[in-house]
Amino acid sequence: MPDTTVFVLDNSYYAQNQDYLPTRYIVQLDIVNYALSSSSENHHFGVIPVAQQTPNYILTPTKNRMNIRQFISNLKFTEEYKIPDSIYIAQRSLQYVDATQKRLVVFFSTPLSDLTLEDVLMKLRDCAMMRCAVYVFLFGDAKDYKMFLDYELNDMGVVVTVVDTEDNFKNKAMDVLAGSSLEEMEDPNLALALRLSAEEAERNKK
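-> structure tokens emitted (206 positions)
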């Protein structure tokens, strides 16, 4: 049974901002592409954009790397974004796959209303309750939500990480993913790649 990872990508208009170089959107793609190239060929990946130009414009988990990269390259920026709905769709896509380990990786940099943030919280909690490893990366306009999400999800095992503009986004994300899940990872190639990336990030800090 292959491992499965679903990425929720922030492709809202806010993701075009260049406070994270080259843009908020491209730093997310760097991590996705690294995961695609570092994992075993049997590892399945799905992509759920938070802003969908048409309803249910998503990529359910597949091991076909060409299809994944094609889907990502066709994504457009749109004004309408629905992060809670995207997390729910990601949860449903993970719920019905037969995988050794399921992971949800959520990126978002957009401002949310209090009501929407509560909805995001409930959707993340639902994912964690179905024994899915959940990682949330907050950056840009979403950094201030960490305290709230940490407090509410503290006992659920959800890993919430803030990435600042001065951070190396890719290195920090790889460090978090490797340090939090290596012991449980069933994909040895991805585990090794994440470990090496984390070690390189440590050396670069010195």
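Strands lie at 4-9, 44-49, 59-62, 102-108, 133-138, 159-162.
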